Amino acid sequence: MIVAKTLAEFAQAYSNLENKADIGFVPTMGALHEGHISLVKESAKRCSHTVVSIFVNPTQFNNKQDLETYPRTLEADCKLLEECAVDIVFAPRVIDIYPQEDTRVFDLGGLDNYGEGPRRPGHFNGVAQVVTRLFDIVKPAYAFFGEKDFQQVAIIKYFVKDLNYPLTIVPCSIIRESDGLAKSSRNTLLTPAQRAAAPHIYKTLCKAVELKGKYSPKEVAAILAKEIDENPELETEYIEIIDADTLRPIENWNDAENLRLWCAVYARPVRLIDNIGL
Ligand code: AMP
User: Fold this and answer.
1) How far is the CA of 146 from the centre of ligand 1 (A)?
2) Atom of ligand 1 nearest to the CA of 175
3) Mean pLDDT of the chain
4) What residue owns the CA closest to ligand 1's atom 6?
5) For the chain, what is the total number of helices (H) and then of strands (E)?
6) 161 with 51, same domain?
7) Which of 24, 111, 156, 161 is paired with 140 by a 20 to 30 Å CA distance?
8) Based on the domain organization, do 66 and 192 belong to the same domain?
9) Rounded distance, CA 184 to CA 32, Å?
10) Does the annotation mark 200 as catalytic?
11) What local confidence, expressed as pLDDT, does residue 213 receive?
């Protein structure tokens, strides 16, 4: 496993890969956990080579404090990846990815009009900026993304198709702690009291299944938000039942074929997101 910390180091390691037509790619921001590792394993299973990037992308942070406090643990990350079949860890500097300001504005097909989009202005455009740059450098045949970031996967699929990238996006299931909390790099920033409260989010989301027969989608969302907020450590920012294909919040249960329930909840100042299929 080669750890490339500059574009030049990456180019050198890349030139030694035998089968460049069958590269699996896992983009991450580091502070790796089993959620990330599940994507790496999926790549190793499917592809001749696996490249993992570790890059805390400044253009997708709309909150300066979030960018500054984002955990950075490169050494521990590399130790974890050593145990997977990874060929290259690409941990570039900002200047390698953005030699000058990236002013590109992407067509995201309106999929950024919902959920995280309006609450994190510029976030998904920043994701598109970094992901396209990384795709251009790594040229993968497959790229693996977690459904933990459900909206992100939908948006990436959209612009990959729109821009004719010759690669397949593989969505991977959410990996959870044994108490149900979705694994996240941000979980390490929770206080013990917040960490103890956080599983309440997933437990509450799961109640939607039984409430579905009795209430409208909006009523169910309101009931769940109230229940999450009963915990003093938690504060729901939004909870919505959406059409999983268009990401639009639904009014009636038969408005869409595939339903998803998604939410963002503050354990201040940390912001947690989660989702389940309905
Ligand atoms: P991040 O480092 O948070 O940008 O995440 C990198 C990739 O790992 C993204 O595709 C995430 O959706 C995915 N990921 C993060 N947490 C999980 C999880 N708990 N289960 C599955 N995938 C995850």
Assistant:
1) 5
2) 20
3) 97
4) 28
5) 12, 9
6) yes
7) 111
8) no
9) 9
10) no
11) 85
